[in-house]
Protein 1
Amino acid sequence: MLWVKAFHIVSVICWFAALFYLPRLFVYHASSSDKISIERFKIMERKLYRGISTPSMIATLVLGFWLISYNVEGYLASGWLHAKLFLVALLVAYHFYSGYLLKQFRDDKNTRSHVFYRWFNEFPVLILIAVVILVVVKPF
């Protein structure tokens, strides 16, 4: 179980790194006007999303459910886990919405300013704080 937990934590770190960096790339992409920069951001965003973010998300989910499988009844009786799983579901939705935004940039259809993406970038930070508190403190 400890090996599964260790790799779960590693995959969570990788996923969050990507969730923090991809919207930051969107900020710079939305601010760019020259073709070379725009094309460079498209490549960087695609590689980050497909090569790091999505595999890390999948690993996080698989390993997380594997951890739950060690004590299904005990974990499902814990209120903190229900709250955590809800927040993870929000992160998965955020992940796929980021993929949608990536496609908007890829197709040159972005209509949002860099300011939107600066705010959009803060959402995973709030989720991370809440998840860490739930897992460490287990308030309910």
Note: The chain has a mean pLDDT of 97.
Protein 2
Amino acid sequence: MSSHAPFISRRALVQAAGGLAAACALGTSAQAQPANYPTKPVRIVVGFSAGGTTDVVARLMAQELTEALGQSFVVDNKPGGGSNIATDLVRQAPADGYTLLFVAVTSTINQTLYPNIKFDLMRDFEPVALGAKVPNILVVNPSVPAKTVQELITWARANEDKASYASSGSGTSIHMAGEMFKVRTGLKTQHIPYKGSAPAMTDLIGGQVQFMFDNMPSAWPHVQSGKLRALAVTTKKRSPSAPDVPTMEESGVAPFDVTSWFGLLAPKGTPPEIVAKLNKVMNDAFDKPGIQQAYAKLGAMAEKNSPQEFGKFIDSEVKGWAPIVKASGARVD
């Protein structure tokens, strides 16, 4: 038997080293797979400023996810571009479950509103869960002498030079509710977009703008305090949280049905096990008394759903808003 070690070529050594590296990489990847998710803090990107309804609902869900999964779920506000900046940021993030998007109805409107949009919700994202649905509510500054929708229409026609309405950004359901109002009534009021509901609400209360179709959760406390006057809700039925406030259709503006909604998306390719884990936590949260009470105060409604059901809902919203955006003539470059 020879005492010399067998000769191993340089190529064989390189190949062996490569194989070992690949094996290690696979092992590391396996360890990072959904069974152990999450192993570090998770970022939930919100395309609007803090204080608005999207932000409020996102923070409620982030707290539930943190408590259930043992890692911090941190809300990161990235306002601007009608939420497109945040959406595109998450589109480009790794599909590992550590960067998520709390999406609003806005993004389904943006698919038609922006001709050169970079993302496609159905192509670039994995639907996780629907977080909440809320009505919008038409509110006016008390300086406006209108206590009904018809009185607002009469006043706005007589004051076209100073009648303006606020929104949380171009392409939001708040903006498009205003555009729908203009289409249905022939009004020529001016749209003033803001980077989020909170700054828009500040100017509405201050009298810099006259009215707004805001999400009910952020507007209703100001109605209760007397800082704003509520004229109508935008849904087909009255809100249980404000049963005395009529609908737009009851007020003589029809057809009119606008519902804001919010939910969680992940970048395309996120492992289905991670998506399922996140979906379960959110659906389970809807049964908790604390969340039910918080939603009742917000005028929000919870709706359990699977990722597949949420995906179908998003697709229907994209298709449903397209003709409304086109009819309004609204476009954003």
Note: The chain has a mean pLDDT of 88.
Protein 3
Amino acid sequence: MTKRAVVLFSGGLDSTTCVAMAKAQGFEPVCLAVSYGQRHSVELERAREVARVMGVKDFRVVSIDLRQIGGSALTADIDVPKDRPADEMSHGVPVTYVPARNALFLSLALGLAEVVDATDLYIGVNAVDYSGYPDCRPEFIRSFEAMANLATKAGAEGARFTVHAPLSGMSKADIIREGTRLGVDYGMTHSCYDPDEQGGACGRCDSCMLRKKGFEEAGVPDPTRYAAGARG
């Protein structure tokens, strides 16, 4: 019987690569998307479609409203930073950081894992080409894993949870090369923090710029659909 793994899934480049990697490693992915009030809600539409195309049998969406907390350009009336140079992206924590988001998302994934009898969780955090989020660092992942084994009924009964962050030490170019090798169609994915009403990428936010740089360095044609007038 194929083992299940819960994969946190946004329909973006990184999480889609994680689904492909989990499948390649012999897991049946249970994909969990979170509707948290993000301004880029088009990602949920893409997530559902990508999951379907990738043959995911169990796709779920949990809804929470982090707009009630705010504090981020993704959940509050705060401008998304544009055109930041690479050295600025690699230092400090930008306003697109959503307070405690990955801790919350992993907690939801952990709860689902207990329900579907899975002990493996996948999250597409990256600590090389990223925007400086503290909850993308390997030490956070290991700390959450330790907590998961202490705070759950399954853990108390002897199960051992593993939080997989397979992209953590990879550059965006490395991620794209690996996903391409595994057959990922990145044209279906969405990464932009500030898309237009049709879901076209702005080409200027941190996520768009890191994604574009990744395709260039990987030597893979960029299939991103950009908004009219965006720098693609």
Note: The first strand starts at residue 4 and ends at 8.
Protein 4
Amino acid sequence: MSEESPNSGRRAPEDDAGSGDREWRTFVAMGDSFTEGLNDPAPDGATFRGWSDRLAERLATENPGLHYANTAVRGKLLDQILRDQLPRAVEMRPDLAAFSAGGNDMIRPFADPDELASRFETAVAELRATGADVLIGTGFDTRRTAVMRLVRGKVGTYNSHLWAIARRHGCYVVDLWSMRVLQDERAWSEDRLHLSQEGHRRVALHAAEILGLRVDEDWRQPLPARADRSWSERRGADLRWIGEHLGPWVGRRLRGTSSGDGREPKRPSPRPLQGASEHG
């Protein structure tokens, strides 16, 4: 599939039940740090906003009275999401469920994308059985990310499974792999592992487009040109990243700990959006 082709990310055609023009009254998002919203600070300064919150705000403009829950927690593995978040999401009986998981598994040495995809599909089937529309996201293309580029092949295999799952179950797909704009380093925060505010904004625009919502901007638009940094500036940034972000991240892996240990979801149950921010 070519990058950002006209069909990139659209709903799988085999199951056309439910469409972007239906009334979604309850939206539930499940996952890890990507869906929790790291590193896109919320207006309150105490939490993160992220693409899912931004999408919920857009949904609310076309579905007044929308109730929204976000059970995502940073650092969670697929099986932890299936154990802790999936049953809760099924009980909420959402009209629309966003489900992205597996990224934290991929960076573990012995992760098997085939096995992960099998468990992912079981969860999708369970969500679809409630009558919910399901929005899934592929893995990012990591070819320009230090360390993460080592798992690019596994992510590609996993993505192939996700597309097949979407076709079998009639899911909407946000094709993160093909988003060229995310290859710009400004789409990523300083830790190079999580999207920046601009990255989350672009993903939310893409997701809204996939769902058939009205959008007033093109997420494909390249970021403004800027002067290239010198070699010494790039080298200095790399050294700071190793000390401030890569080192602590590796340390947590060696200790078997996670940044999400003991953390509760920021929005555990569906409730109306209060004072939703302007789109953007």
Note: The beta strands are 26-30, 67-70, 96-99, 133-137, 172-174, 267-272.
